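Q: Structure tokens for this one, please.
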Amino acid sequence: MHQLEQKPVALVTGGAQGIGFGIAEHLLTQGWHVAIADINPSSSTAAQAALAQFRESFRVMRCDVSQEKDVERCVRSVLEQFGQLDGLVNNAGIANPHSGPVEALTLADWNRWIATNLTGGFLMAKHTVPHLRQTKGAIVNIASTRALQSEPDSEAYAASKGGLVALTHALAVSLGPDIRVNCISPGWIDVSAQQHPSQAANLSPSDQQQHPVGRVGQAQDVAELVNFLLSEAAGFVTGQNFVVDGGMTRKMIYAT
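A: Here is the predicted structure, written as tokens:
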């Protein structure tokens, strides 16, 4: 184990890109040691740049969260490098919500969505809980507003994210008072600028203005809340699902 400056340690799954990388990068700037676990960590130039910038405070690992042996190895590596674990962010998931008509959805595809988006969160919790108990740590699960509302042909994704919301309050009751567990359900979060800075400008005025807050979300919007929920400032908050969607799920929309 390296002798590092005493800082809290977070493990962020699916952290090589998208919302997960936004969370990891923000936690690094807030004084955390951060390990990211991703099925394809080398695909992210942003993660590689952060690795060079933050050096000993940052670790990038390959991990398929649906495979228990991978999860065990990942958690062991985090403990070997940093010596403790204070926060877990279950963000890994298959991002595409569209599985096609339910009558054509194969059992193999259904199981793939559930295994990554839901079982992965369970496995990470299972293997990090003994270490989080020691530090009185916290877990934040990243679900989706699709756990609360749907477009057609998204049954597998919706079920996996709805299950993650339910897993959150079950874990909160089981693990309290030692470990707090909360959930964030993001809406439309634009992460295109991570790889292609010019793409963010492609959002139309209607994309922005349809949101009650007047804009599409950014990864930073989710990351700020993650940092709060992992911190002692959220010490009286557990078992909750926080919707971060610019107000869209509160907006009554009818076709005219």
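A few notes: The domain at 9-250 is CATH 3.40.50.720 (Rossmann fold). The two ends are 62 Å apart (CA to CA).
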